[in-house]
Amino acid sequence: MTADFKKLQNNIFSQLPQVDWLLQKQEYQNLINLYPRELVVDQIRNYLNTFRKDVTKMTIDELKSTDISKEKISQVILSKLKSSLQPNLKRVINATGIILNTGLGRAPLSKQAQRALLEVSAGFSSVEIDLPSGKRGNRHNLVEELLTNLTGAEAAAVVNNNAAATLLTLNTLSDHKETIVSRGELITIGGSFRIPDIMKKSGAIMREIGTTNHTKLWEYEDAINEHTGLLLKVHTSNYKIVGFVSETSLEEMATLGKKYNLPVMHDLGSGMLFDLSKFGLPKEPVVSESIKFGADVVTFSGDKLLGGPQAGIIVGKKKYLDLIKKNQLARAVRCGKLTFAALEATLRLFFDEEKILAHHPALRMMLSPEDTLQKEANKLKKGLKKIIGNRGDVRFEKGLSEVGGGSLAAESLPTRLVSVELKKMSPEDFGKKLRLSDPPIITRIVQDRTVFDVRTLIAGEIKKIIAAVSRILQE
Ligand SMILES: *Cc1c(COP(=O)(O)O)cnc(C)c1O
């Protein structure tokens, strides 16, 4: 090692700022006000150490060309600190037009549910105490009456998600016993939920009957034997068979179940608490109808059309729900107070169907009138055009939004899109920069253009998109 080399290295080391020098700066003070001081100091030390190590590995040419003013290093460390202190789970802007997007957390919660979360999380809560008696309570009671009122069922329980609800119900009613199910209903949802697999895990023995497009009542009856535990019907949420189709109705299955004293389970997937066709939307199965048609147990999600937190809801006959609640597996898939807080607030919205649109973000997005969408699209297009100018092209597109979450399969909602093409940036790069913005913005690419669907935007987000695009173009 030449003396020259050593001198250069030492020169750089002597330039490195001290931790205390950095901490005096206002920008660092701001971070210390927001985050624990020790965390910030630790991170600074880590960055300085890494920088020192990097310097020892540099060639003489690299050493000569390195800009290492204190200010420069301070700025680099600050931006690294800021990004490392950000949470991994962030609120994002959904400009995809897919309302119930599992990757984006499905339903946005109502203001009522947000308030309930904040209130319950700030202190202790009555999650398992019966307040009048002071005795240990049962968390299922928190929402059981709401659910039985809304669905007409005798009893209800809530677990972690609908996959858990299905697993728990199958395990309770059909462990080591046969569950009869039509081949047309052996579905996969979102890649990881498969009826045959969940059945295997539950201990139920799958007894497939019928064919993909055709299953008759007599085939269920033919399959019943002394090992049968359950008749299962699954709503084929995310696909539709058209053409020569015959499925056995829930009512017929329920009558058969009664005749042989076997429970009938209906996995609804999304399920809805009232008929959406009253708002002009296609009909999604209604939970109370499944109960009325004679299902003994019905399972559905809390965060699909219901618009609540991730949860799996089980409603049905009390004698079966009692068994389900007592199952040790129920303890393993129970949900926490935050879920109950948000779910209870969401369920209460459904008692006033007239006002629900004003409060329920997912429903409001589904029902957003085209003139409202057009107005929002105008705002977005105008803002983007002003920022982008002659650096690219901004225009309206016609297109479709989706409900998503396996709800209302094959139904698309006509929407208003704003699309952008930049002269000096590929749509892939632009999409990535949008995702790395603060807040992250999620878009789609259609025919080499970046597309923003205004349907899934929430108040104030158009401004944020315009500001983000402006920052991206300034970089
Ligand atoms: C979505 C769905 C599930 C899984 O529900 P999660 O809440 O995602 O666990 C199960 N069954 C059907 C029919 C579904 O549509």
Describe the structure.
The model has no long low-confidence stretch (mean pLDDT 93). A 7-stranded mixed sheet has the order 3-11-10-9-8-4-7, sandwiched between helices. Strands 2-12-13-16-15 form a 5-stranded mixed sheet. The protein has a two-stranded parallel sheet with strand order 1-14. The chain is built from 21 helices and 16 strands. Helix 7 runs antiparallel to helix 16 (337-349), helix 9 crosses helix 10 and helix 19 packs parallel to helix 21 (461-474). It has 475 residues and is an alpha/beta fold. It binds pyridoxal-5'-phosphate (PLP). Pyridoxal-5'-phosphate (PLP) binds next to helix 9 and strand 9.
Cα gyration radius (Å): 28 Å
Please list the strands of the largest sheet in the order they lie side by side: 3-11-10-9-8-4-7
Number of strands: 16
Instruction: List the ions, cofactors and other small molecules found in this model.
Output: pyridoxal-5'-phosphate
Counting copies of identical and different chains, the oligomeric state is single chain
Query: First CA to last CA: what distance?
Result: 40 Å
- State mean pLDDT (0 to 100 scale): 93
Please state the overall shape, judged from the principal axes of the Cα atoms.
Answer: elongated
**Number of separate helices:** 21
Helix/strand class: alpha/beta
Task: Please report which band the strand proportion falls in: under 5%, 5-15%, 15-25%, 25-35%, 35-45% or over 45%.
Answer: 15-25%
Biggest β-sheet, characterized? 7 strands, mixed
Q: Unreliable stretches, pLDDT < 50, 5 or more residues?
A: none
Percent of residues in helices comes to 40-55%
